[in-house]
Design brief:
It is built from 14 helices and 15 strands. It is an alpha+beta fold. It has three domains: 120 residues, Jelly Rolls; 147 residues, no CATH class; 144 residues, Heat Shock Protein 90 (2-Layer Sandwich), CATH 3.30.565. A five-stranded mixed sheet has the order 10-12-13-15-14, covered by helices on one side. A four-stranded antiparallel sheet has the order 1-8-3-6. Strands 2-7-4-5 form a four-stranded antiparallel sheet, with no helix packed on it. Helix 9 packs across helix 10.
């Protein structure tokens, strides 16, 4: 069906079906003669040739159709594709303005799907106004029940959906606070230790000055300090075994020379990449054995100060990256609809869910960086990624492999999210996108996460979301068009 395809029905005239003929339809078989006469006067018959579009999804629901003969197909549009969900030739089936009896609450009534005649078909047709009137007048008790059910379900879905969003926000906030607390606490500890080391450094410098160190020796010592710090900045990372061996060597060397607290200094010098040759060079430049103890402690304080400042820099950088990820995830100060790189949202979502993913789940990212930007509502897509990744982690019970892959498929960008959990049984696959359906225990799921994700992807972005699952391999694939969908 193209966007320009028109709905054309042959004109009809009232009174073409007699009350007796109407009684042969299962929908009307229990009505009284008076009611059937009313229907005969207010209804009409319409004919549609094979291939004709009877109604189109999204158009105002103005008519109620009952099939008299022929074969029809009901379908919905997913992107540019027609997805058929029903095909029937059963006489008496109905479609169209089926909710015309509901009270006018300001919500526009539209056709929920499109209907096409697959061969020459004939329909009995009532206007939405007439159908709504007869339902309210003839079946008042049923209408009260149906209205209560419809409005109750709508209110229930809104309340549970809001509760789920709040719960998800609370979980994300708690995870983010946990992630922020670690670098913040590390920076606080490093700052406290730095204050002590700077004080010790001043004390040792005072002791060196009091020892009447010749100016040339003091200048040489300061130059040596700069050399050692520069060497530490370029020092290679040692393995645990290499670091232990280096500490033993340095500790023994300083113990032989009666350096006070040499075994406390050894780990600092080892981490900075200082070896025995460097210590020998330091001893030569200091010269006076009486001052060497204070000199080596002073340099030790300088090295530890540099290491603590690096720790503070790393911690503050981690905080900044978390804040940036949170801002990207929430799309603060950004347009609701924009051209985006899907990888940015995926990365920020992974950062936000780091605490929930934990250490037992291995995350494999297979990203195609050549993918084009796509038109989207990034905050809504982030909600989709959150639901899918969260479900995958829960399915694996915190242990397994989470695989996120992006690639291009024709005129769509595809995001694939897979897990190594137990899988979804075959009889439940068709229901996972239904509202309120969940495979989780009572109290752990609302059954709205995948329903919301489906509506965001399909209705909001003109894309598609599919599921493939078997034990040990469950994959959701989200297809998003690279061009603006015609329904946007």
């Amino acid at each position: 069906m193209t966007d320009t395809e028109e709905v054309r029905l042959a004109p009809c005239e009232p009174g073409q079906l007699t009350p007796a003929e109407l009684r042969t339809l299962f929908l009307f078989e229990k009505l009284s003669d008076e009611q059937l006469t009313w229907l005969s006067r207010h209804g009409c018959t319409m004919r549609m040739p094979a291939g004709g579009l009877v109604v189109r999804e999204g158009d105002p629901a103005e008519q109620f159709f009952v099939l008299l003969s022929g074969t029809i197909s009901l379908f919905r549009m997913v992107g540019q594709d027609e997805v058929q969900f029903n095909r029937t030739e059963q006489r008496g089936v109905y479609m169209g303005a089926t909710q015309a009896y509901l009270r006018d609450d300001g919500v526009p009534r539209t056709y929920m799907a499109s209907m096409r005649a697959l061969d020459d078909s004939e329909f009995f047709v009532l206007s939405a106004a007439d159908f709504g009137w007869l339902m309210r007048e003839w079946f008042p008790m049923a209408i009260h029940l149906l209205e209560g059910l419809a409005l109750g379900m709508r209110g229930q879905q809104a309340a549970v959906s809001e509760r789920q969003r709040l719960a998800a926000l609370g979980a994300l906030s708690a995870g983010l606070m946990h992630e922020l607390n670690n670098p913040a606490a590390a920076a606080s500890r490093a700052t406290a230790a730095l204050r002590q080391r700077v004080a010790g450094m001043r004390h040792k410098l005072g002791m060196l000055a009091a020892g009447k160190v010749p100016a040339d020796r003091l200048n040489a010592l300061i130059e040596l300090q700069d050399e050692v710090i520069e060497k530490a900045a370029k020092a290679p990372t040692l393995t645990a075994m290499e670091a232990a061996d280096r500490e033993d060597e340095l500790g023994d060397w300083m113990e032989e020379r009666n350096v006070t607290g040499g075994w406390d200094l050894a780990p600092i010098f080892a981490q900075a990449g200082i070896d025995l040759d460097c210590l020998g060079d330091m001893q030569t430049k200091v010269g006076d054995p009486g001052l060497f103890d204070q000199a080596i402690h002073w340099i030790g304080y300088a090295l530890e100060t540099e290491q603590l400042m690096s720790d503070i820099e790393d911690a503050s950088g981690r905080v900044s990256s978390l804040v940036a990820a949170a801002k990207q995830y929430s799309q603060m100060d950004r347009a609701a609809h924009q051209w985006i790189d899907v990888h940015a949202g995926l990365k920020s979502t992974l950062v936000m869910l780091t605490h929930k993913i934990g250490t037992g789940v291995k995350v494999v990212k297979d990203f195609d960086r050549s993918l084009p930007e796509i038109p989207a509502h990034p905050a809504e897509l982030n909600q989709v990624w959150t639901n899918l990744i969260d479900n995958a982690v829960q399915a694996m019970d915190g242990v397994g492999t989470l695989t996120i892959k992006t690639y291009r498929e024709d005129d769509h960008v595809v995001v694939s999210i897979g897990d190594t959990g137990p899988g979804i049984p075959e009889n439940l696959k068709k229901r996972v996108f239904e509202p309120f359906f969940t495979t989780k225990p009572v109290g752990e799921g609302t059954g709205l996460g995948l329903d919301i994700s489906y509506r965001i992807v399909v209705n909001g972005h003109g894309g598609d979301i599919t599921l493939e699952s078997q034990p040990g391999d469950t994959t959701f694939r989200v297809r998003l068009p690279v061009a603006e969908p015609s329904s946007a």
